[in-house]
Specification:
The protein is an alpha+beta fold and 186 residues long. 18% of the residues lie in helices and 39% in strands. It has one domain (3-184): OB fold (Dihydrolipoamide Acetyltransferase, E2P) (Beta Barrel). The relative contact order is 0.20.
Length: 186
């Protein structure tokens, strides 16, 4: 389902302590374009670098290089997976950026409506579908603890998803409408 035409679930993108006392940096972004099978360019909608375009390196995975047929296939698959979706970045809290200045993050798509939402881990899905391999880089993530899909609901105003340490806030219809209006007038 394309959330662009429905009341979206918006993520409260703040630096917030999670249940373990560590901080998480979470951001709601929109896709500008896919660079290759493990790098995207996004525009921050709320929170971290809001209003700015920046590059994101998908954490702890490695896709084939673009000068190979497999690299072009991985890029096409990632493009298909992310097209028309809201994205949530769970950003590396150890370094934030890699040596090339890209933000390092686990990228989630947000799907659903009517109070039932699913966050899908795109990093993990690329590996499971064979378009990338795991590479456990020095960062705050541990791929062996990832969940592919996380179901959540909005039965309360704030819903914490402990599997990814992302506090979720379902905004009011008024706040959601303001995001939609901004998208429509562009």
């Amino acid at each position: 389902m394309n959330l662009r035409y429905s009341i979206p679930l918006l993520i409260l993108p703040l630096l917030i302590p999670n249940v373990y006392g560590e901080a998480s940096i979470v951001s709601l972004v929109e896709l500008i374009r896919v660079v290759d099978g493990d790098t995207i360019i996004v525009k921050g909608m709320e929170g971290f670098r809001a209003g700015e375009e920046f590059r994101v390196r998908l954490a702890d995975i490695n896709a084939p290089e673009m000068d190979t047929p497999e690299g072009r296939i991985a890029k096409d698959r990632l493009t298909d997976m992310l097209r028309g979706k809201y994205l949530v970045l769970d950003i590396d809290t150890k370094y934030i950026y890699d040596r090339y200045g890209r933000v390092v993050a686990v990228v989630y798509t947000v799907d659903g409506s009517d109070g039932m939402y699913t966050l899908t881990n795109m990093n993990m899905l690329l590996v499971e579908e064979g378009y990338a391999t795991y590479r456990d880089y020095d960062n705050s993530f541990n791929p062996s603890s990832w969940s592919l899909r996380i179901e959540c609901n909005d039965d309360s105003q704030i819903r914490c998803i402990t599997e990814v340490h992302i506090p979720i806030l379902v905004l009011t219809i008024l706040a959601s409408a303001s995001i939609l209006i901004r998208r429509l007038i562009r």
